[in-house]
Design goal:
about 110 residues; mainly beta; 6-stranded mixed beta sheet; 10 strands
Length: about 110
C-alpha cells in the first residue's frame, strides 16, 4: 500500500535551515507529481510546494517563495524540502503527498523559535 514517511523536522532558531525528507513506497513514484503541505497549530492544512514527476517544474506558496526548495530523487524514491531563512510562522507539521491521491503520512514537526 501507499506509504509516505516524513523526517528531518526539529527545533531551529529563526533564520536557520532544515531539510525535510519523504520516503515513498507503494506506488510508481517516478510518475507521480508530489507535494509538501503543512499545518500550523489551530490552522488548516496548506499547500507549500509542488513538483512535477520529472522534477523539472515546481511551484511554491507565496509565503515560502525564495526560501524553500522542493526536489526529488526518483531513483531513491525520495522527496525533499530544503527550508532556509526560517521564520516562527513556518512552525507546523509538514506532510508529503502525491498530488493526485489524498493519502497522508504521519508528518514531521518543525518548530522555529529562539
Amino acid at each position: 500500500q501507499v506509504q509516505l514517511v516524513e523526517s528531518g523536522g526539529g527545533l531551529v532558531q529563526p533564520g536557520g535551515s532544515l531539510r525535510l525528507s519523504c520516503a515513498a513506497s507503494g506506488f510508481p513514484f517516478s510518475g507521480a507529481a508530489m507535494r509538501w503541505y503543512r499545518q500550523a497549530p489551530g490552522k488548516e492544512r496548506e499547500l507549500v510546494a509542488h513538483i512535477g514527476s520529472d522534477g523539472d517544474s515546481s511551484t511554491y506558496a507565496d509565503s515560502v517563495k525564495g526560501r524553500f526548495t522542493i526536489s526529488r530523487d526518483n531513483a531513491k524514491r525520495m522527496l525533499y524540502l530544503q527550508m532556509n531563512s526560517l521564520k516562527p510562522a513556518d512552525t507546523a507539521v509538514y506532510y508529503c503527498r502525491r498530488a493526485a491521491v489524498e493519502v497522508w503520512g504521519q508528518g514531521t514537526l518543525v518548530t522555529v523559535s529562539s
